[in-house]
Amino acid sequence: PITCGESALGATISVPTLDGAVDMRVPAGTACGQKLRLRGKGLADQSDTRGDLYAIAKIVPPEQASLTDEERQALKQLDARRASPRQGPAWEPGWTP
Q1: What is the value of pTM for the model shown?
Q2: Can you tell me the distance from the alpha carbon of 64 to that of 68, in angstroms, rounded to the nearest whole number?
């Protein structure tokens, strides 16, 4: 799980692995569901060569009840400045597949 800010801005987070926690870089612009590879941190094969471990990003927004008025206002201002992700023919009235 990562925060909205970590997904947008990038971050280094601690991730549990088979050998204990390691620091993993989350690139700026990481989308929910994106796979992030930890090279050599997966299971070993018959020759003891370690495979890769994949972490799947899950963006967890702040709980509505925990937001302050200032945070709520900041989110509204950010949304007002950004283009909607719901664009293209599928979002046009009367569109059929």
Answers
A1: 0.79
A2: 9
Residue 20 CA: distances (Å) to CA of 7, 23, 50, 51, 54: 23, 10, 15, 16, 15
Q: Tokens standing for 23?
A: 């620091």
Q: How many CB atoms lie within 10 A of CB 11?
A: 16
For tokens 């302050």, name the residue: 68
Q: Is the Cα torsion angle 22, 27, 28, 32 positive or negative in sign?
A: negative
Structure tokens at 40: 């050599």
Per-residue pLDDT of the chain (97 residues; tens, 9 = 90+): 999 999 999 999 999 999 999 999 999 999 999 999 999 999 999 999 999 999 999 999 999 899 999 999 999 999 999 988 898 888 888 888 8
